[in-house]
């Protein structure tokens, strides 16, 4: 296995043009004395939508690293893979996000649950975990219920991991297990049971992505009780530290926060927890960079502004189709979406203010931002027109991409004031 660094930052680059400007944010962090390594991620769904191949992510990442002389690690993530789509990523990825959410709730075969309980009597009763004020009080019925819910997903993860291991044939990689794309969050006691099961499965996972309390809508701030999130996040860190010692999991195992783009209100609690505990973190962003491309186009005025308006007009005309695949992670009030005709009359500054995520800006429109977040398919269909203007407006777009990742994400998470 590769050993991923303490702080890693997942960056999506849907059109494979911003890797250099994304890496520039990590360079700035290193200049401040904080090592944050980039992990370029792109899912099978995103490749299918755009018509790209996993090789394009590797090529763009390696070119950016060479261009900026980056000598620290960098990774390419096969994002949210399963047995049905992993093959195309094997040659190009060294980080694999094994998504087993579909297995949650499926009944495990045979005596799997009773065997698990027999192997782990320590999970029943009073469980004192350093860093958590009150011990977990669990019953056999509770552990049975949790095991029945998650064991099949864990076994699916083991199957996928061993397939990757065989196919990579000695080439090292970082395994992550993702359970975030499901309806209900995993509580800290559930996480402990899941980690025990993952250890039994022999997966040397280095990051785990649970579903947290609250909503992690695409491209906008966290929606939920921030104090509750902070308690849950801190308890999860304590559970991971305990499980490392108890079950022999990798010493660098850390939490992974998915859909982490723009969750500004929870960045301070995360930063406090990392500083207090010394724990690591992987935070994954995706459509943030694509939105900064739209902002950069609009800010460039001229043809770039016209293109940004055309993309919005097409998006608002196809709301249902664009939103359906992302229904669980967006929350759009259609009454708050301006008409295409209204937006046609906006200045560059008006459109930029509406889309750029500055929460206290009166003109910011989180509903427009979410719609554009899921509207990248429109740009993909534009082909050379979109790519040509990306390249023509590169300076403005790159400035926005770097500023967004460094100032709004890396600094509050990993550096602080």
Which characteristics define this entry?
alpha/beta; globular; eight-stranded parallel barrel; 51% helix; 11% strand
Provide a compact summary of the structure:
This protein is α/β, with parallel strands linked by helices.
Description:
The chain is of the alpha/beta class and 417 residues long. It folds into two domains: 7-288 and 406-415, TIM Barrel; 289-404, no CATH class. The chain is 51% helix and 11% strand. The chain has an eight-stranded parallel β-barrel with strand order 1-2-3-4-7-8-9-10, surrounded by six helices. The protein has a two-stranded antiparallel ribbon with strand order 5-6. Strand 8 (207-209), helix 7 and strand 9 form a beta-alpha-beta unit. Helix 4 packs across helix 5 and helix 7 (226-247) packs parallel to helix 8. The radius of gyration is 22 Å and the shape is globular.
Oligomer: single chain
Q: How much helicity do the residues have?
A: 40-55%
**Count of alpha/pi helices:** 17
The CATH topology annotation of the largest domain reads as TIM Barrel
Question: Which spans of ≥5 residues are poorly predicted at pLDDT below 50?
Answer: none
Secondary structure topology:
Elements: E1 7-12, H1 19-31, E2 37-43, H2 44-50, H3 54-68, E3 75-81, E4 95-99, H4 112-119, E5 125-127, E6 136-138, H5 140-168, E7 174-178, H6 188-200, E8 207-209, H7 226-247, E9 254-257, H8 264-277, E10 281-284, H9 288-299, H10 302-316, H11 319-323, H12 340-344, H13 348-355, H14 366-373, H15 376-382, H16 384-392, H17 394-415
Parallel strand pairs: 1-2, 1-10, 2-3, 3-4, 4-7, 7-8, 8-9, 9-10
Antiparallel strand pairs: 5-6
Helix pairs in contact: 1-3, 1-17, 4-5, 5-6, 6-7, 7-8, 8-17, 9-10, 9-13, 9-17
């Amino acid at each position: 296995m590769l050993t991923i660094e303490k702080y890693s930052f997942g960056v999506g680059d849907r059109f494979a043009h911003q890797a250099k400007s994304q890496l520039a944010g990590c360079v700035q962090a290193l200049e401040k004395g904080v090592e944050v390594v980039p992990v370029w991620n792109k899912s099978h769904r995103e490749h299918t939508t755009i018509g790209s191949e996993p090789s394009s992510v590797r090529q763009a990442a390696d070119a950016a690293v060479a261009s900026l002389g980056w000598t620290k690690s960098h990774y390419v993530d096969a994002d949210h893979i399963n047995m049905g789509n992993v093959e195309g990523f094997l040659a190009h990825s060294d980080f694999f996000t094994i998504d087993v959410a579909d297995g949650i709730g499926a009944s495990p075969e045979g005596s799997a649950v009773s065997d698990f309980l027999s192997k782990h009597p320590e999970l029943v009763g009073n469980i004192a975990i350093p860093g958590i004020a009150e011990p977990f009080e669990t019953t056999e019925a509770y552990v049975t219920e949790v095991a029945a819910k998650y064991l099949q997903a864990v076994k699916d993860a083991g199957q996928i991991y061993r397939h990757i291991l065989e196919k990579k044939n000695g080439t090292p990689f970082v395994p992550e297990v993702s359970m975030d794309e499901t309806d209900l969050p995993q509580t800290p006691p559930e996480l402990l049971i899941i980690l025990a099961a993952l250890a039994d499965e022999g997966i040397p996972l280095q990051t785990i992505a649970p579903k947290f309390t609250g909503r992690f809508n695409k491209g906008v701030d966290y929606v939920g009780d921030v104090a509750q999130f902070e308690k849950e996040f801190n308890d999860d860190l304590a559970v991971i530290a305990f499980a490392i010692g108890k079950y022999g999991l990798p010493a660098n195992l850390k939490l992974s926060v998915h859909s982490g783009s723009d969750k500004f209100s929870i960045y301070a609690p995360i930063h406090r927890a990392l500083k207090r505990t010394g724990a690591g973190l992987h935070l994954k962003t995706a459509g943030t960079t694509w939105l900064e491309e739209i902002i950069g186009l609009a800010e460039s005025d001229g043809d770039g502004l016209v293109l940004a308006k055309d993309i919005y007009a097409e998006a608002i005309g196809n709301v249902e189709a664009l939103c359906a695949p992302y229904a669980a992670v967006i929350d759009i009030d259609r009454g708050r979406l301006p008409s295409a005709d209204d937006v046609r009359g906006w200045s560059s500054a008006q459109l930029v203010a509406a889309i750029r995520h500055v929460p206290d800006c009166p003109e910011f429109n989180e509903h427009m931002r979410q719609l554009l977040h899921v509207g990248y398919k429109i740009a993909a269909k534009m082909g050379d027109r979109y790519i040509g203007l990306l390249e023509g407006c590169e300076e403005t777009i790159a400035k926005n991409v770097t500023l967004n990742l460094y100032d709004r994400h890396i600094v509050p998470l990993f550096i602080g004031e």
